[in-house]
Amino acid sequence: ATSPKVEYCQRFDIMIEDGDWPCAALPDKILGDRGEMASRNPEGLVRALWVGGEVAAPYRPDWKGIVEQRFHMIPAVLKPYVPGYVAPDFQERGGRDYRLDGTLDLDDFTEIFLRCVLYYNNHHVLKDFPRPPEMVVDGVPPVPSEMWHWGIVRRSGLLRSYPPDRVRMSLLPSEEATVTAQGIRFWGCFYSCSKALEEHWFERARQKGKWKVRVSYDPRLMDDIYVHEDAFGTQYVSCSLTDASADYRGKSLWEIEQLRAEGRRQIAGRTHDQLEGRINLTESIKGTIARAEKKTEAARAFNTESDSQRTKGVRKNRAAEKAAN
Question: Are 239 and 216 in contact (CB under 8 A)?
């Protein structure tokens, strides 16, 4: 939302000008539904970027029509053309399994989505939008991009721009990680960074015990996490996977969890076999010991030496056994 749209659209071979999609700034406030805004997701926006959050009233969709109508803007354009679009009869008896019709990959779908946004910005006419008299006098059509440019000149606003890295860090989920002697442990993976090595974090953890640090992370790629250096999350240190967790490089959090779940499943599947093998091992050891005890008792029956005499001849007997072997 805060990135320049010209560069973003070029990734999908869509050439636009700045005026086609002019918004690349943060607002003063964000109005959201209760499920999203009541969670911890907006904390970074409020704490680091000073963007306020407001929660819409529950069970009153008529009070948040702008939010609800978003479902009709893009899907209404896509529906007649996109193969695999889920119709209302999905999962009903005799209904078509629309997953079999899918042909678009993620890049294809994104390109179509972007073109729908550009159409809405520059060509969609808002017939029922209550334009102020000044806008009508200036001959501004009720098209979103035209009204936007008019509002930037004629109205005031609180649009603010921040470096993309700062915005990204503020939006990443954050949790606590543990500094251990093996590294910074997070979701079962171990990380390290230059700051931790310079300040001897891992040696201190070995001597004085573990402690917690706040980190941000991108669940889509867990190669790096970001340790917060201040309470606002605006200063951070990037930490990378250590060699101990090299098997998880290039993987998402979901993939890492799947690998661990599969490992646990395989271990659980071998529990019965391990128990059976342990029982057989115990029985074999007992059998071998029983045979050895019988041989020993039989040998002692023909040996008239005392215990002290037997121990004195250990060296000679050992040499004889070596020679025999």
Answer: no
